[in-house]
Here is the input.
Amino acid sequence: MKIEIWSDFACPFCYIGKKRFEQALNEFKHKDQVEVIYKAYQLNPNAPKVMEGTAYESFAKGHGTTPELAKQKFEMFTQNAKTVGLDYRYDIIQMTNTFDAHRLAKWSNQFGKEDTLTNRLMKAYFTDGLNIADLKTLEDLAQEIGLDKNEAHTVLSSDQYKDQVIAEQQESRQLGVQGVPFFVLNRKYGISGAQQKEYFTQALNQIWQEEKPLNTLDGASEDASCDDHGECGF
Here is the structure.
């Protein structure tokens, strides 16, 4: 079974959804026959490499709201993250561009490290308050998980994997993906949003038994995702 996951390191529901999916996958009796493939997706391709002001101010400016309302929204994300053991720190988060982080992740795949790096990048963004658009920071994170820092520097200093990142985002549009996280199971089913673990369990068992054209499974809520405009909701 092949499962493709479109996500962005800066998407609050992508991190939550990843944890819930992993909980279901770890309990799936055919886990050893499941291949998980990560696909690049940018919620905000125009995000800066250095954030100005606070995360509340940055979000408010980009979404036509106030810092106070942004703070309330972030608090909802934070509480949701706690249900899967994640600690979101919007007081120190740096809302920056994720394109180079995606390039680094594509490079790490050949070493079997993309899942590990994905987790580290998401933690760096949501919990550690690191700027994952900063090349030096990315190099350090690569080294931290056992990758060669000099090789990471070479990749990040070039345009390597740029085309792959762009192609994966184009592929998502061809599939009709309008928000992330988005899970594609065997190119037969699509699951949108950070569904509960039980839903992923149901989907894994169902796809194991059946074959159908790709469509969003009935009963899935699309609210727990972030759309192309950067809007995230429940």
Remarks:
- Strands lie at 2-7, 35-40, 179-180, 182-185, 189-192, 215-216, 225-227, 232-233.
- The first helix runs from residue 12 to 27.
- The mean pLDDT is 94.
